[in-house]
Amino acid sequence: MPSEAFNAVADWLRQNLRSSESDLVAEREAMAQYAAAYRPLFGVADEPAPVGQPGSYVMTPTACRDDVVVLHIHGGGFRSGNAGLLRLVSAQLAADTRARIVLPEYRLAPENPFPAAIDDCMEMFDYAATLAPRIVVAGHSAGANLALAVLLRTVGDERAAGGVLFSGVYDLRPERFERGSWVERASSELVLTHEGGLSMHHDYLAGRSATDPLVSPLLADLTGLPPLFLQAAGKERLLDDSLMLATAAAQAGVHVELEIWPDMFHDWTAAATMPEATEALSRAASFIDRVASGRIGKPALSDGVTLQHRPPR
């Protein structure tokens, strides 16, 4: 049964986000105000990153390990959001993994369309490599797309140790907004609107092709990617993206762990005060620890996906 905190967040989302496309300036301002409300978590220090776009952070836990670092990329449809939004989530990951978390700020569309955001994240990948020899690249929603783009750009680079992808969008072709879970989950989706999906496509691409594999990673050759950990919500419009990515990656020989949380909404892990988010993040932290320690298991299912959890309703 969903927690009281979950129900409260879901009610707020129904009242505030299930509407037509919002004003982008107002949306960015609302997210900035939310990020400004962050209060440091005991045992985790945060400070501005010395490189990258203004607004990037480094989260450092007490007794920090030095074998792995996490590059943690925020979402927002490529058009809004900021690194500060993930400070609480990142503080929890830092505490659970004892690893530094690098939060990159990146330039937003439509002012800075593809590939500006990827270039900014790549700069922070190189910075993260100065902090530890192994990098796990994580991201939420559009940030998961960017995380996968970073991993595709670094195939064969031993520094790229794994990927943690939350509720990602991996196909930006216009026809995807007319079929599959994008349509079938419209009534249960609490976050993503149809208008918002079209604006994401239009503003991020700015006329470029959606078939570029760094735009739509489902079309990429995934061979050589490091182990991947995916989480998706059963009620979100982007569910098919995670299902199809897991299958494609497994067919390319990539170790994939996929979790479908039936009752959750899009990117619920970003609502870090909910127990459902805390549990999901702890499972992601376990994957990060296994990657850093070289304890990734063998395939457990015949469908090609290494491990598929379906947490209880």
UniProtKB/TrEMBL annotation:
<dbReference type="Pfam" id="PF07859">
    <property type="entry name" value="Abhydrolase_3"/>
</dbReference>
<dbReference type="InterPro" id="IPR029058">
    <property type="entry name" value="AB_hydrolase_fold"/>
</dbReference>
<comment type="similarity">
    <text>Belongs to the 'GDXG' lipolytic enzyme family.</text>
</comment>
<feature type="domain" description="Alpha/beta hydrolase fold-3">
    <location>
        <begin position="70"/>
        <end position="269"/>
    </location>
</feature>
<dbReference type="InterPro" id="IPR050300">
    <property type="entry name" value="GDXG_lipolytic_enzyme"/>
</dbReference>
<dbReference type="InterPro" id="IPR013094">
    <property type="entry name" value="AB_hydrolase_3"/>
</dbReference>
<protein>
    <submittedName>
        <fullName>Monoterpene epsilon-lactone hydrolase</fullName>
        <ecNumber>3.1.1.83</ecNumber>
    </submittedName>
</protein>
<dbReference type="GO" id="GO:0004806">
    <property type="term" value="F:triacylglycerol lipase activity"/>
</dbReference>
<keyword id="KW-0378">Hydrolase</keyword>
